[in-house]
Give the backbone structure.
Amino acid sequence: MADELGSQNGENSEYGQRRRGRRGTGSNGDRPRGRTIERAPEPPAPPRAAQPEPETVKPARELLEAILQRMGIADVRVRYYARSEGEYLEVDGPDLANLIGRHGHTLEALNLIFNNIVNAGVKKDRHYFTIDAEGYRARRADMLKGLALATLERAMREKRPIMLEPMLPSERKVIHLALADNPFVTTESSGVEPERRVVVSPRGTG
């Protein structure tokens, strides 16, 4: 299992088409031999029902609200909900494109800083949240889980490793978790940021 399992963790036409122009290459500019690069399809819209906020979440939500205020992001609402891949704090507001950033990089950076603050000094039972905005990361997670299953089927059918497009650490984590208990394939991360990718391999061929 890859290193991202302990780390943190659909887009519109303006800020969402992740790495459309990029292709995986080897050191000589050619695609890595023996591996097919699988790209992510467009994400579906996920359900976004708010859920009751546990008391333990209140300090984290208030911290996020304070950080957003310091960032000059006003007139927003932060709400809690849980999904299969973890707990979310979603920011709703009139214009959050700058908070999301290009390809979600601003959200990713904020998420890392936020969770480091939340877990500062905590030795065990560390608590991680996914900060979302306008459902961006939830849509992306839904798409990535679908991509993981499709890649599983393709790796089994073709009996060879399938390399995915470069992803953020939190996105690679979704792929790893989606296939963690599958008896037919293994996943690993390969490469160096920002070109680090997940490779899905049939067991016995990795």
